């Protein structure tokens, strides 16, 4: 059986070319790696399959003795799953449970937190076995005579397990135990009191099936009476009432009754303030913001500004940047830059600059640039590039700097975004068996298509410190923490890339950038922006830039020809079957999984949209994502000026706004890999497609 190559890891040295500010970046990015082969074995694959089966069985509260025997046999063989030996020991013990004494010996409850975040597979399997033990405990209780008195250890185990039961685990079995002991008043009360105490601790209402079987105590009655909001029906009523008030305000706006509409929005916010524990915070903010925007599009700018300020006050913490951005948004659309600056000053946005996301940071810098503070704006653009190098706003910040510094070379400006240094690399023979085994296991999960286990393996590798990564402890001491992380990320990305697991590789890369544990360099860009299907794309894009198509494919399907969206879009370019039939009436849904068919029809559709919208890339991409008719309506009702960035920020759908930004970003990086100039075209013109670029 042929073994699978996982990763190419080589020692690299910084060459003279890397120190040259005029180097050909793309040639470095596309340089071939000298491969060092790391293989998983047939036995690794066999164990992986058995582990998937075991996990599925345990999730159904089943455990087969034949499965346990297999895992026992694996312990004495050379394989990459030796870190699960402790799990195998537990499996053996659990499979030998024959009575209550052996249960407490072999299934002792583990002191773990409820809903604990797991960083590796061994931990996940331990938690799964804990859950199985808690299931066995309930099953054993149901087998007891209902007239017996529960032992101290029975009640103690129940207290420890109750946290899991009241938060949703084994609900049917909990109800069965309560029902089983109902005739035994004293024991039924003991069980009920333990559970009720945990329901109160977790502020969780028992299900109807459990509630009817609990011993109803004064404590339980008081808890239920004081926490009516835990009743789903109550929450639904308040949420629906708030939504109705907001919708009524929008209806009034559509009718031109603006004073009443504004009063209705304020009434909705007052209603929310009084009943906020029943109403989703984010929905309240989104609804209020949309109502304000409706007023703005009807020319009621001052009313919109006032409501957007109120909306910011109810925004959840994670939306603080976005809510603050909307204080600037009306003035941005109106090109009223003095008002933008006044808002920046009023809300101390410069003082809090570091706490905002790259979007708000960019618009703060832009407002300052437009009001004559170019030096300060440039300093902020540089901060955005340093902190969020992979973002859309970093790219347009770079373009702003290029505009302000026409005397600088393109390579020098790009160096602000992308490191000229090669990533840190070492030969695999200096790394530990722990790292190599983890990479082999990850490749097994990828080959089996088991995303959950693959994610756990990635987390495990990412959490490894340098003493775990390198077998030579003296070598490890001389490696910085960041170099260790960069080395890990590079090889995770390589492995995932080699198995076409692009979404996971993108996520590993982006998370590492977000943690500032990785520099953006050309070698990594090569892996994050794959060029698969490029020859096929070029055959189908005579009149449009093939980099637009590959940028779209990266976003739409991550190069998975079998991708299917929740609404039925298919294949590489995520074509809807009805759209495909416009170009070939004989097309069947299954044909769209064929890359040749999908790219041919998708490119025709994209070309048609570009023609329809006169080469406007924003309208074209937004149309591809949200539908052509919507763009026609937005052009009439929403898009107020010719500034492309303001147009993007005015797209009503968050998904579509982000889609346009991400494809623009993708095209930028693909252009770098193609050695195209990316900074000479003015920002405004970069959103206009006039002819194909080959």
UniProtKB/TrEMBL annotation:
Residues 539-637 form the Transglycosylase SLT domain. The keyword Transmembrane does not apply. Residues 1-19 form the signal peptide. Keywords: Signal. It comes from the Bacteria. Belongs to the transglycosylase Slt family. This is Lytic transglycosylase domain-containing protein.
